[in-house]
Automatic annotation (TrEMBL):
Keyword set, alphabetical order: Cytochrome c-type biogenesis, Disulfide bond, Redox-active center, Signal
Localization, UniProt: Cell envelope
CDD domains documented for this protein: TlpA_like_family
The protein, known as: TlpA family protein disulfide reductase
């Protein structure tokens, strides 16, 4: 692994005040990154899609530079094959080299950037979580690494125990993270695994601001300019016609006289899956006047059929729904629309909620 140092603080490794205990090493590693004006590294992520029993690999080269005006103190650029993500001076840019476009969004006053994959899984942010606890060490290729763990979630949702733990391995020789593992469990069984390696570190004491130089001839699109926000309660729900898994046409307006619950979901969404598991329970029945429909704006029928063989979707599946998702302003998953008997929107709910799941359930006799 290549490691580059341009920081005077490396003297800690050789001085009499060099960190000795696991807790001191963790604190020194955190300070090592936090005090740097520029932090660059290469990251390889392995992302499990448990419902499909598949793993995706994503490789990024990432450059963080301190900026007190930025959302969390840094501007950053991340590059992978054919695509770049940039967050500079409060503006997010997505540069797609395949279709020669630049998408922009003003996220200075938004929490959206908070959930960027580049931000969430990088050590600068991981170090800020507490409490990390030392749990042991290991040796990889004759190099000793110290392992620390942070429990992010330990709760019960409905009757499902959800447990999420994070592991970070630090090299005490250079005070740099080398490996990260995020493990999600449902009822004691692993539900999803995300792992990252970090290498080719470059730390600079000071950093020059990013210079925005976009490729010539690329079309710039302002994100949101062609997409509607979530529809409001009381408005007429846009009608649509989609095929179900059996090739039958399902038209929204055919359900007039009953309420329709549109469950906008995608495969790689943990809370979407939890909602489906609640709906699929033997003791869960929708209220008599509610017709539920699963609407997927993102995934192909090929993936959905594979998904359906592993995850129970207890009501009709409608795919190829990208345009429907746009019409309804869906920008996150799960999103639920409850449409009344006249075709007007009665309720809009984003994200998973125990209370909403119970609201739509048939009341006991």
């Amino acid at each position: 692994m290549k490691v580059f140092y341009i920081l005077g603080m490396v003297f800690l490794l050789f001085s009499c005040s060099a960190p000795q205990s696991p807790e001191e090493i963790f604190a020194a590693a955190r300070q090592n990154l936090k005090s740097s004006g520029q932090v660059q590294f290469r990251q390889e992520m392995v992302w499990e899609s448990p419902s499909l029993e598949e793993f995706d690999t994503i490789r990024y080269t990432i450059d963080f530079r301190k900026n007190p005006k930025a959302f969390f103190g840094y501007d950053f650029v991340g590059s992978r094959d054919g695509f770049e993500s940039r967050y500079v001076e409060g503006i997010e840019y997505g540069i797609d080299h395949q279709d020669s476009t630049v998408k922009t969004a003003d996220v200075l006053d938004s929490t959206r950037i908070q959930y960027s994959m580049l931000r969430t899984f990088n050590p600068l942010v991981l170090f800020e979580n507490d409490p990390w606890k030392y749990i042991g060490d290991t040796t990889i290729q004759q190099q000793k690494l110290l392992q620390y763990m942070w429990v992010e979630m330990d709760t019960v949702i409905m009757d499902k125990k959800v447990y999420l733990e994070n592991h970070l391995w630090i090299n005490p020789a250079n005070l740099l993270p080398e490996f990260y593992s995020r493990r999600l469990y449902h009822d004691g069984q692993r539900n999803q695994l995300i792992e990252s390696t970090y290498e080719d570190w470059v730390l600079e004491e000071k950093a020059e601001p990013f210079v925005l130089d976009f490729p010539k001839g690329y079309l710039t699109k302002v994100e949101g300019s062609t997409e509607s926000p979530l529809l409001k309660v009381g408005t007429q729900a846009p009608d649509f016609e989609l095929e179900d898994a059996n090739g039958n046409l399902v038209k929204l307006s055919d359900f007039r006289g009953k309420k329709v619950l549109l469950d906008f979901s995608i495969i790689n969404c943990g809370w979407c899956k939890i909602a489906l598991e609640q709906f699929a329970k033997e003791d869960y029945k929708f209220a008599d006047d509610i017709v539920p429909l699963y609407v997927n704006p993102e995934d192909s029928w090929e993936k959905l059929k594979k998904y359906q063989s592993r995850v129970t979707v207890p009501f009709p599946i409608l795919a190829d729904a990208k345009e429907v998702g746009k019409e309804y302003g869906v920008n996150g998953f799960p999103t639920f629309y409850l449409i009344d008997e006249t075709g007007k929107i009665e309720e809009v709910a984003q994200g998973y909620s125990d209370e909403k799941i119970l609201e739509w359930k048939r009341k006991s006799e």
